[in-house]
Structures are given as C-alpha cells and as structure tokens.
C-alpha cells in the first residue's frame, strides 16, 4: 500500500523561491595582546588576614532570640562567646 500525496504546485513554488542575498563576510575581531592588557580587578571586599568558615548551625529558638535582642552584631557576639567558652 503506497501513500500518495497531492503536491500540486508545491514543487514549482519551491523552485521559484528567491535565494537569500549574500551577506558581507564578518571581519574578525582583533585579539589584544596579553602584555598590554590591564589585569582584571577583583570585585568584592579585600581579603582579611583571618578568613572565617561558613557553617550552618541549628540553635534553640530562645537562644537566637536572646542574641537578637542585644541588637546589631549578634552573630559576632555568638562567635565571641564561643571563643571565650573554648578558651581561645
């Protein structure tokens, strides 16, 4: 069993389709010499002498609320209290 499609005038339309216009060739971008380029500046804060470790810690809600009640810098105060308790 063969399937026959009625193409009608489709091949003629495809044959008469205009060709796209030629485009000018793209000029390559000149590469810069590495010795003449400025080094990329790093974003963000400058590094400090004592890098801190990022940790995820679950604390009791009342402990967190007590530190938050002391105002700004409560996270630093937790760090200070931990250092005192460890004798560091």
From TrEMBL:
<feature type="compositionally biased region" description="Basic residues">
    <location>
        <begin position="14"/>
        <end position="25"/>
    </location>
</feature>
<dbReference type="InterPro" id="IPR025528">
    <property type="entry name" value="BrnA_antitoxin"/>
</dbReference>
<protein>
    <submittedName>
        <fullName>BrnA antitoxin family protein</fullName>
    </submittedName>
</protein>
<feature type="region of interest" description="Disordered">
    <location>
        <begin position="1"/>
        <end position="50"/>
    </location>
</feature>
<dbReference type="Pfam" id="PF14384">
    <property type="entry name" value="BrnA_antitoxin"/>
</dbReference>
């Amino acid at each position: 069993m063969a399937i026959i499609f009625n193409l009608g005038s489709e091949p003629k339309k495809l044959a008469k389709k205009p060709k796209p216009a030629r485009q000018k060739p793209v000029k390559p971008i000149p590469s810069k010499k590495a010795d003449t380029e400025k080094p990329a500046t790093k974003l963000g804060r400058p590094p400090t002498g004592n890098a801190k470790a990022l940790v995820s810690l679950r604390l009791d809600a009342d402990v967190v609320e007590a530190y938050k009640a002391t105002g700004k810098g409560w996270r630093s105060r937790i760090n200070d209290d931990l250092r005192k308790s460890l004798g560091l």
